[in-house]
Each structure stands twice: as C-alpha cells, then as structure tokens.
Amino acid sequence: xxxxxxxxxxxxxxxxxxxxxxxxxxxxxxxxxxxxxxxxxxxxxxxxxxxxxxxxxxxxxxxxxxxxxxxxxxxxxxxxxxxxxxxxxxxxxxxxxxxx
Length: 100
Prior knowledge:
This protein is mainly beta. The protein is built from one helix and seven strands. A hairpin with a 2-residue loop joins strand 6 and strand 7.
C-alpha cells in the first residue's frame, strides 16, 4: 500500500509529531521535522548522552503546522545526542548520532 503525502498529513493533522532527524547519523547539520496540531508553546532541547543541555533551540509559541528545525552541531564532539520536544501534555525524544 502506498501512502501519499496528503494522506500522511491528514493522519497526523490533529496530533503532535516529531520525526526522526535526517540525515542520521549526521556530520554537521541535521533537520528535525515537528508537527503541531494547534497553536501552543513548544520547547525543543538537545542534550548529550549524559543529559547535559547542549542547545535550547526553541522555547516559544508557534501556530499549528509543520516545522523543519535545523540543528547545527559543528562545535560538538562526535557522539549520541537527544532531541526532546515538549508541548502541552506531549513529550517525546529522538536519538541522534553525530559522526565526525
């Protein structure tokens, strides 16, 4: 079965969603796609494998829609990082691999 972009968009229209970053593993930059079902405050935080915050990318109110958030890790060492998205009662994390 093939799922079109329109069908996919309809499926997630009323849900929060964070997709796996791409590319992963990545070398310098990667993109994280986030979907918001309604206007809300959202926080996007990047931590290292030890839980230390290395970047607080977003902490503000955004309208409903899909956003591409670019994470630049040029100054960070190789390793495992986590992208945490928090909005209302939604909280999800994705693992990202930085390869130098």
